[in-house]
Amino acid sequence: MTGTDVGVTRDWTDWEAVHTLLTHAFAGMEGRIDPPSSLLRMSARELAAQGELLAAVAAGRLVGCQIIEGRGGMQYHGKLAVSLDARRRGIARILVDDAESIARERKVPALLLQTRIELVENHATFRAMGFVEVGRTAHPGYNSPTSITFRKLI
User: Fold this and answer.
1) SS (HEC) of the chain
2) How far is C-alpha 129 from the geometric centre of its chain's CA atoms?
3) pLDDT tens, position by position, 35-72
4) Distance of CA 154 to CAs 8, 17, 132, 151, Å?
């Protein structure tokens, strides 16, 4: 499979598959991030209430996803993930590019996302896609930053 074999759809409805993909994709964060991902407390139904799903599909199989929603006049990107066996093929970039097209259609001036402080490989990926750090925040009960906020002007 290559990035050219992947299509993005807004019509994917199998939220159990999305939840499974995210659970497997985020498993490597367990023990690395503090506090643990909110995904661990979320059902597929709760996940579906988070926003609009963009699903990356290859040969009928879900290989990546992200959830977008309007937030503060920008388009927020959450739960961006690629299945373990489909990584390093440009799928995350395909998803972000598609979301950027949606933002342009909706005349949204910027994309916004957050990643955990500990996930330095994610920071590098998002910087390579044109995102810049615009802030750091702490989860409730934490005195130091736990997340970095990135923004991409479009």
Assistant:
1) CCHHHCEEECCCCCHHHHHHHHHHHHHHHCCCCCCCCHHHHCCHHHHHCCCEEEEEEECCEEEEEEEEEEECCEEEEEEEEECHHHCCCCHHHHHHHHHHHHHHHCCCCEEEEEEECCCHHHHHHHHHCCCEEEEEECCCCCCCCCEEEEEEEC
2) 13
3) 999 888 899 999 999 999 999 999 999 999 999 999 98
4) 20, 31, 12, 10
CB 55 within 8 A of CB 18: yes
Cα of first residue to Cα of last residue in the chain, in angstroms, is 29
Instruction: For residue 93, count other CB atoms closer than 10 A to its CB.
Output: 14
R_g (Cα) of the chain, nearest Å: 15
- All residue ranges of the chain with pLDDT < 50 are none
Does the domain at residues 3-153 carry the CATH identifier 3.40.630.30? yes
Backbone angles phi, psi at 39, to 5 degrees: -55, -30
The phi-psi region of residue 55 (left if phi > 0; otherwise alpha if psi is between -120 and 50; otherwise beta) is: beta
